[in-house]
Hints:
Order of helices and strands: HHH
Shape: elongated
Distance between the termini: 8 Å
Number of strands: 0
Structural class: mainly alpha
Amino acid sequence: MAKTPNNPVTELAGGLFEQIRLAGLGALATVQRESTRVLTALIEEGQSIEARFKNKSAMPPVKPQASAQDVAKLEQIFEDRVARILKQQKVPTKRDLQTLSAQMEVLQQTLDRLTKQRQHR
């Protein structure tokens, strides 16, 4: 079987897909590396809040039995603060990672298809 000349468009697309795939892997590695920094920032924020309450005696008295509404409010405050810190640290959300993963899957399938096409020439 005679080998057909390489198609520059296919070569460019394959190289581009490979770069994007590697960038995606790099993004995942960055998230893993940054998670320690984010955890440290969350701990420091918690210590800061705790110190403010202790220093000013501003912490409201704890009720022996908090209502479900009180618990829900505290949970929401906590979730909002964690979300704010994660956003400040530019940590991708679960949705961001799911989108990136789906895009990487499509790119990998395209790269596999182009590689297979190239091998059959």
